[in-house]
């Protein structure tokens, strides 16, 4: 097998050290792979050795019998069992690190020249770690200036400058000094803050963006404009959408006095037709139109109501385009003269069925009660085709059985009724009977007249035949009587 490891980073963890100080321990992180693939997660025995040169003698060595490796990444504390101070190692000189894994020697790697090596600052007060591809453990906490209490914990003591705790971000488009890029800072007492203020500072001439679910929601431009749902805010606050507030509208801490006929509009141009026209002196409101002096609310356009409208007076509608009441979705239109009355006077279902006196209409007009007035039906020959005369009406009518009956539904007229049974009529005249989606049958009584008319005509024809027969018989009788009288003479 070909084993490869990379020295990712070394951090001095022994505290504030002078350049020539010998650290007590070093935090070391590496990546272990076989043929370019990370080794399996588990516990491994690793031995580390320090040399003053690539082929030099051993300056320091230490065994770690159980090192946890996850996704190829491992972390160890070097010097934990074999102290560096005992070996008197010169950390100002170049050092080479070698690792033994599974009987195979990996390295050595020169710490001071590797892209992942430790680089000490030339100041006498600090040391730092610099790396172009640093990889940190997938678990555990990192602390800077403190014992970490979170995954990344940065602490600045009050004695350090102004006491600010900074997270400094730069990229190729910015410089790398402390006055470039961006910072997230907990302001200390020594700076402009109170010790509890958080400062987010984009030091470049760029914007500050806030995203959720992968989409920008808020933007603060470099000139201070704030956009909510608006990527190019042109005002101090530019909102691309609705604004909902439950408090008052204030200006400089005081309620906004709209004055008489103050216009609110969506275009920002006071010369256009206002979205809302409010007469502060009378309380009258116009939407899409100037408030009428006789109307509390005057609307030029459609009105959508989510629940109900309660009126103390009349509801008036003025339009040259007719009057329309619409509902959203599969909802009925209900008319209730008395709000406390639980039985609606009329209902219009989404499919167009209208019920009067019933809340479950089964037909285009379903009335539970008596209808008074004249009814007419379409009958122009220009609307009809396949016209055939009705034949045999009399015999069919003779099969109809009229009945007396009472309604089971107590909401219907409880007086004694007369009529037909739809199931019986359907067997003789199926054209007169309709069946709804629930299987209930209704009969068109008015069209029975058509059948009765044809029956009367058939009776009339039979009567005429009978009359002709009677006349012929009378003539025959008269002839016989005349012949009999002549024979006697």
Give the structure's gist in a few sentences.
With 489 residues, the protein is of the alpha+beta class.
Classify the oligomer. Answer: single chain
**Domains counted in the coordinates: how many?**
4
Based on CA inertia axes, which overall geometry fits? Answer: elongated
CATH topology of the largest domain: the name is Immunoglobulin-like
Output the radius of gyration. Answer: 50 Å
Largest sheet: 8 strands, antiparallel
Strand content: 25-35%
- The proportion of residues forming helix, as a percent range, comes to 10-25%
CATH architecture of the largest domain: Sandwich
Q: How many beta strands in the DSSP annotation? A: 33
Q: Strand pairing plus helix content: what structural class?
A: alpha+beta
CATH class designation of the largest domain = Mainly Beta
How do the helices and strands line up, and which of them pair or pack?
Layout lengths: L2 E10 L13 E9 L2 E2 L3 E10 L6 E13 L2 E6 L5 H4 L8 E6 L2 E7 L7 E2 L8 E2 L12 E3 L7 E3 L10 E5 L12 E5 L11 E5 L5 E5 L2 E6 L5 E3 L8 E3 L10 E2 L2 E2 L6 E3 L11 E4 L4 E4 L9 E3 L33 E3 L10 E3 L5 E3 L8 E3 L25 H7 L3 E3 L11 E3 L2 H7 L4 E3 L5 E3 L4 H41 L1
Parallel strand pairs: 11-12, 18-19, 24-25, 28-29
Antiparallel strand pairs: 1-2, 2-3, 2-6, 4-5, 4-7, 5-6, 7-8, 9-10, 13-14, 14-15, 16-17, 17-18, 20-21, 22-23, 23-24, 26-27, 27-28, 30-31, 32-33
